[in-house]
Amino acid sequence: MKILKNIRLVSFVAFSQMRVRLKQTIIATVGVVFGVTVFIFLLAYVKGLNGYVQEITLEQTPHLRLYNEPEIATQSILDKVSPGTLNYTHHVKPKSVLPNIKDGLQVIQEIRQDNRVTAVSGSVKTQVFYEVGLSLFNGQITGINYTDENALLNLGTKIQEGSFTELNTMPNSLAMASGLAKKINVHSGDKITVTTPKGDYLTMTVAGIFKTGIPEIDIEQCYAGLSTVQKILAVPPSYITNIKIKLYDKDIAFALSEEYKRKYHCSTSDWMKDNALAFENEAMQNMVVYCVAVCLLLVAGFGIYNILNMMIYEKMKEIAILKAMGFSDDDVRGIILIQSFTIGIIGSLLGLLFGFLISYAISLIPYESELFSAINHLPISFNKAFYILGLSFGILTAFFSGYIPARKAARIDPVYIIRG
Amino acid sequence: MEILRVENLNKHFYTPADFWVLKDLCFSIDKGKLTSITGKSGSGKSTLLYLLSTMDTDFEGSIRINGEEIKGRSNKWLSGFRNTHIGFIFQFHYLLPDFTVLQNVMLPALKQGKYTKEQIEHNAMELLTLLNVKSQSAKRASLLSGGQQQRVAIARALINEPAIIIGDEPTGNLDTSNTHVVLDLFRELTTEKGYTILTVTHDDDFARQSDSVIHLIDGEISK
Ligand SMILES: Nc1ncnc2c1ncn2[C@@H]1O[C@H](COP(=O)(O)OP(=O)(O)OP(=O)(O)O)[C@@H](O)[C@H]1O
Ligand SMILES: [Mg+2]
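Predict the joint structure of the above. Result:
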């Protein structure tokens, strides 16, 4: 009860002093408001954009890939033939292996039964040239089973013109990425001449045009039916070069990739390996954003420190009187800390509010992007964690910047001051 | 009854050079007495008062107030003790300018926390009435005249009914008529209400009218 009374009294003194110095108090508060606002906005903006890019990237990345790659032997044939002697072999070439996965269709069937797997899709890739007038454009066609691939990469939602469904039903039909379509100026329904690696010509029909939002894909990707591509390559229907897998829990991707590697004797890769650069990049960006945000709060904290210091300097005499009247060192420290906490809490809360309002306003502004087709507004993140972080940082800053002045005030020697 | 007892009190200032301000002081003060401290400028009067008010704890010897030894106490204990047992009146009023007159008087009692806010307000108003500044109670302290401020400061010193009231030239910058008002008030407080008052003064009239006088010469009590 007594303690409560004392807290009330100390707060009363603290607030009275702040009321008298309303202007400076407001200025210090505005500093915190600004810091926290920018902190929130910065995170909302950068993380929102990052999150979006990552999301679409991950959507277009299978959790697991199985493929076949020629491997360089670690042991030369000489070592095998005459072991124990010193053999020099330079520039060993890989032995010729077919790029297809052995018993591909069989493997797909087996993986489909695995209850950790949500979707699996086999594909075959081929390089081609698109003949447009007299010019040739380089491109790549991936042969897929549309139903399987759609279950995996959600292709259906990426369509801009026409449709994907013909790929399965109509031979020699093609779905083209929007960037490529624009470059060679075709629309859905158009016919296009394709030169195969074997030098044959083939007329294909553009059934649909799609856009994934990922520039590297949108500039060159084309999909066709599995059998169409197999025909271009002149290989049998069992010929599969790539198996993409989506999992229920993407965190087991690495473990599973090792398992499949052993089981099916092929190369594997997982989504983390495939996106290493993107993740690295994001970590760097995070660091920069947090650094900037912390710097802003430091500046705000310096503002608080400054005003409280000034206040103490001006109120030295009054602090001495309070002490002479029986206020303890702790009470005086409390007065200053309450002042800095008040500035910190009010500033932070207002900062959160403004940060939210600005983020919200930005998220409403229409935004058209060549790259990010799927959105018409900037992707702003409203993650609660940023707000909790902003509040804690704001209050923490206030506490630390109030701490030194508070200690200084508590140490004021009343005799020294009152003597003059 | 003995309120204050000082034994072998010595005080040195060590900066800039060792300076022995108070030399082996011994005296005591009884309850209900008005005592004056006189002496030339620089003789150590203020220094003695700050020691007696427990704000300066750097001394040798013994100071007992209300039976409690001051030497060797923690800062926290001292501030509580000061709050309850000592009323201090400074030479230059030293009210808190951001607070009203009434709040200034109430603050030590609020700090003590012994009574409810209503009771404290009531007591404070009574003191302001006694000191004839009741009409100013709602004003900001900084707006009052010097004499009024000094009276408010006295009211503030009285609010917790302290064992001893210590003043450093409380009439130092008041005119003669105001000095007389304060002097009469001090007389009234000691003889009628039983307060104990110890105050530095340069006013001979004031000293003559007090119950006893401690005269300092170069930090020693002259007999
Ligand atoms: N902090 C200090 N450091 C060193 N010397 C000091 C300090 N404070 C006071 N003194 C010295 O101690 C002596 C006594 O000072 P004090 O203020 O007690 O005098 P006083 O009797 O109150 O004088 P006055 O009547 O002018 O107020 C003086 O010589 C002064 O210079
Ligand atoms: Mg003096």
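Chain A has two domains: 2-58+278-419, 64-77+95-271.
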